[in-house]
Amino acid sequence: MNKTLGSTLIVAGTTIGGGMLAMPLTSAGIGFGFTVTLLILLWLLLSFAALLFVELYQTVESDAGIGSLAEKYYGRFGRILSTAVLLTFLYALVSAYVAGGSSLLAALLPVINDAETTSRIAGVIFTVVFGIFIVLGTSSVDKINRIIFFSKIVFFILVLFLLLPKVRLENLLEIPIDNALIISASPIFFTSFGFHGSIPSLNKYLDGNVRALRISVLAGTFIPLVAYILWQLATHGVLSQTEFLAILQQDPTLNGLITATTQITGSEMIGGAVRLFSALALITSFLGVALGLFECLEDLLKRVNAPTNRVFLGVLTFLPPLAFALFYPQGFIAALGYAGQMFAFYAIVLPIAMVWKLRKMYPNLPYQVKGGTPSLVITLIIGVFIVIVPFLIQAGYLPNVVG
Predict the structure, then answer these.
(1) pLDDT tens digits, 206-261
(2) Residue 201 belongs to a domain with what CATH number?
(3) Is it the case that residue 184 has pLDDT exceeding 70?
(4) Considering the domain boundaries, does residue 399 fall inside one?
(5) SS3 label, residue 397
(6) pLDDT single digits (tens) 90-103
(7) Domain contains 34
(8) In whole angstroms, what separates CA 97 from the centre of its chain?
(9) Full residue range of the structural domain in which residue 24 is found
(10) pTM for the full model?
């Protein structure tokens, strides 16, 4: 039960992070009602997809990675494709979180030479300090994640306590500036429930216990859904679209969110509370996603009989994201959008393809996700559509979100 609770908190902690912080940045022009509708639909979609992984893990060893799982059903091609997509997705997410962490930490550090240098130093500090827990292992991540997660909840409650009294009904009733923005924002919102890269680590940690993993998935994603709706109520209710968009056009980063909150509410206390909550949210999300990336690289190196020294794996895990943050400090939203595109393939297309074969090979498994073939087909169509959304934005068929 202790491990189940820890796994549930890792799911929730990984989920309540960068994607949540990006929501106000990308939904400022959408409106509260449509934002909540999008959240509920994506929660149902991604919880269903996560349970497909639970179903799949009944047929392999508890320490099998996604590459090993895909190879079981699609051979070497499946392993290569799934590993490549997963690595790209996880690197994009970790890059976004390092960039966001750099932005937040740099605002607290004294200026060293110039703002750019300060941001780079902040990125190194953030990566090294919290990357150490990943190198030490899942157990250390579980312990530090529990502390930070509960601290994050305290500050989240404080933020809600300060913001909710300032909510104005007219702000909540604002309609989208452009209805197509709802579609454009979907890949970024999609990552808000993106803990799926951590499922192999959780399954290994739970020793392949299907029931425990299922509980962790359902409870661990429901907590963020409730938190997201309250977060949207607070931010959309306090920040009018016109004022919010004007500030974000000048600074489409997490500091822009904090600046907007401080300026519009006129309260330094609220701005400080949002900053602390943002930092804690980023850290827990960083820990969960980086752990998944670390385990994926370990699985890959074992496959090719390469050395798997944990320090070397740590360098492989964090050097590329750190380089991204150092040379593209404004890339928080861009990295999340790209991660959403990769994540749609990894979290929806891939498990559906594997479950399709799984159910033919093992028709009588103890646990099978409900919905049958129709639910798989509908989910697949939605996943493919989310994959092509960024291309539609680049082609000019859909409007771009802030950032």
Answers:
(1) 888 888 999 999 999 998 899 889 888 888 888 777 776 666 666 666 666 777 77
(2) 1.20.1740.10
(3) yes
(4) no
(5) coil
(6) 888 888 888 888 87
(7) yes
(8) 9
(9) 2-394
(10) 0.79
